[in-house]
Task: structure prediction
Amino acid sequence: MTGQTDTSTTRERSPEHDIGSDGFRSDAAATYAVLAECWREPTEQLTEAIEAGELAPVVGDLGSADRHRLRTEYTRLFIGPAGPPCPPYESVYRDGEDPDALGPVKGPATMAVVRWYREFGVQPAAAYSDLPDHIATELEFAAYLAEAGFDDQLDQFFEEHLAAWTDEFLRQVETETREPFYASLATTTREVIHQ
Result:
């Protein structure tokens, strides 16, 4: 996991899987974990990775990255001040009564995701204050399932959750963003989810 989720159980993995330089045995798990980190509030580590070209396979070669600009755009897109144009929460896209309007946070979709986490003995880390149906948290859980070799459950989680709501969210991001980083991230995330 990328540090935002605590696992209370450790699952055995077969020894024939090698651990890559990123610490993951599974390429899919590493991809989901990187995407999860990219969807969190930008850190100095993220901007350094962008500038070093380490994220070029994810967002293309963006050259330099300004953490302040990325954080400003993150806040505008995903936090507010007056209601964000692209809330990064599954429940907002799935639990509304009006199909043309965004729904509430902490709806039934949020509770369904929490049940998945509990079933596998994981929960958001105490230091992580966002909701469990945030796109980054769901991608991090997908990384956990991929790394643990729970392929059938991963497919089911994608079908029931990530693939069920992210298209609308990612379209919103592509439409609303003023930063190439988020436009590229949305495109790559869609490609990965629909592989």
